[in-house]
Specification:
By secondary structure, the protein is of the alpha+beta class. It has one domain. It contains 10 helices and 6 strands.
Length: about 240
């Protein structure tokens, strides 16, 4: 198969000035003979892939039980393990007040895809051996604004953003199982543990939306198209009482 995705985002990245490498994420049951299979959490793997590494994560090498569950590598926890996760979220991480609010957060967001896949491959898109299911941009707020504007340029359909929950849910699984682009802030524990810069956000685009995204770059002002403001509108804007 021709790996057209490997150079597909070069112009987009250059125009937007994104410094981190876009990350190709592929969910598969197939055996792979490339990449590193060391123990790693999903959020750590995302950071490493944005820096140039290729990683293959299976249930045996997933270093985060929550990530294994949210990404569909293992069955949802039950019994004592479920109670342990409830305690950790409420008393350990202190990210939600009670087991009731934890359950509410889970039930009101897209559920984890049980039995989804056997392995997850993350790699810089320019080196990805497998066709991506999603592309994750580790970027800043301005990049995110431009990416989402380009993403909806042709069809005008706004993304249905899902922010709540873990980073692996909002940045990986929600876009993968719904086919919707998403903006993620990550979760506070993942951000803190991986030492992501304070201005970092995560934009995930399902791969099937990438051709339209890149095609919008030369014709959209969020890409490289020149902004044109009619004189009558510009004159009104100049009347602002709070000039720069």
């Amino acid at each position: 198969m021709e790996k057209i995705w490997q150079g597909q985002l070069d112009e987009l990245v250059k125009v937007l000035g994104i410094e981190s490498k876009p990350v190709a994420v592929t969910f598969t049951n197939d055996e792979v003979d490339f990449g590193e299979g060391k123990r790693v959490s999903m959020c750590r793997a995302l950071k490493l892939a944005a820096r140039g590494k290729t990683l293959v994560i299976e249930k045996e090498t997933s270093a985060c039980p929550g990530g294994s569950w949210h990404c569909g590598l293992v069955e949802p926890p039950s019994g004592d393990m479920r109670k342990g996760i409830q305690w950790f979220l409420t008393q350990g991480e202190k990210l939600t007040y009670s087991i009731t609010t934890f359950q509410r957060m889970m039930d009101l967001t897209t559920p984890p895809p049980t039995g989804f896949c056997q392995r997850i491959v993350m790699a810089p898109v320019e080196e990805a051996e497998l066709r991506p299911d999603i592309i994750v941009f580790v970027c800043n707020a301005e990049h995110a604004c431009r990416l989402l504007t380009l993403d909806q340029f042709w069809d005008g359909i706004p993304p249905r953003i899902e922010l709540a929950g873990s980073m692996c849910h909002s940045a990986l699984i929600y876009p993968a199982v719904t086919g919707r682009s998403n903006l993620s802030l990550g979760d506070w524990t993942a951000r803190r543990m991986q030492k992501f810069p304070a201005d970092t956000v995560f934009v995930t685009i399902p791969y099937e939306r990438v051709p339209n995204l890149t095609a919008a770059v030369p014709v959209c002002s969020a890409g490289s198209a020149e902004l044109e403001i009619p004189q009558e509108i510009e004159s009104v804007m100049e009347e602002d009482d709070f000039p720069e």
